[in-house]
What does this fold into?
Amino acid sequence: MDDGGLNYCRDIVRRQDPDRYVLALLAPVGRRPALLSIYAFNVEISRIRESVSEPMLGQMRLQWWRDTIDALFAGQSRAHPLAAPLAAAIMRHDLSQAHFMRLIDARSADLDPVLPAAMDGLIDYAGETAAPLIWLGLEICGVSGRAAHDAGWSLGVAWALSGLIRAMPFHLRRGWCCLPSDLLAKYQLDRSKLRQEVSRNNIIKLVKEISETIDTNIEKSHELRSDIDRAAIPALRVAGFAQAYQRRLARFGYDPFDPRLSAQPPFIAWRLMLRGLVGRY
It folds into this structure.
């Protein structure tokens, strides 16, 4: 892999996705370049919505990435600094093309979203935008099997829901809201007026209910731990990150507008490393 491509991956992940940057640094040295390349790919497609002025332009960019993934799997090169490191990861670890395509398709829904009517729809969205990335990480770690796959889905749901809570102020400023209609109705909230709510009590109740879903999915992944090879820990360490953010969310009263919520949990790298030493993710 050329140093320029790897440096590009390292820089974009460090700046745009510092949590996954920590996860990559904690992985074995031989796995880091591939993990950084798939995390950089995820950054590229996930920030398309905020970088375009209309959905059609975003769909065109996503189609470029579909074509690029097709080309890389066909052994062809593409004019993008991420192409070479991503191609190296695909070849070295025999990564699944379907996982890349699922991530792109999930981001396609961001551009012209059909707002979820129920919590199940939000859970599906969360899983589709995060679990395939964990599955790619598992492939990089050389781990397969139903237990690891199911843990990856549960942690994808938990991680994406956690991120949506922390990103809620940013999304609302942009006029975005993916909260399901049934929860908004349950707590008597108007999607168009969430930023103007005088009392945050009902918003806090809604966030707490979503938080319970996060906890449930983390617990599901932990129930599978005995059936998963310890080599999977670098891909599944997102569980420890999600738990740390959950503790902060509870400490700050489940208020998504508390500015302290967006800060990375202190000493998280050390805590995750210690968990890994005892076989926990």
About this structure: The domain at 113-281 is CATH 1.10.600.10 (Farnesyl Diphosphate Synthase). The chain has 15 helices and no strands.
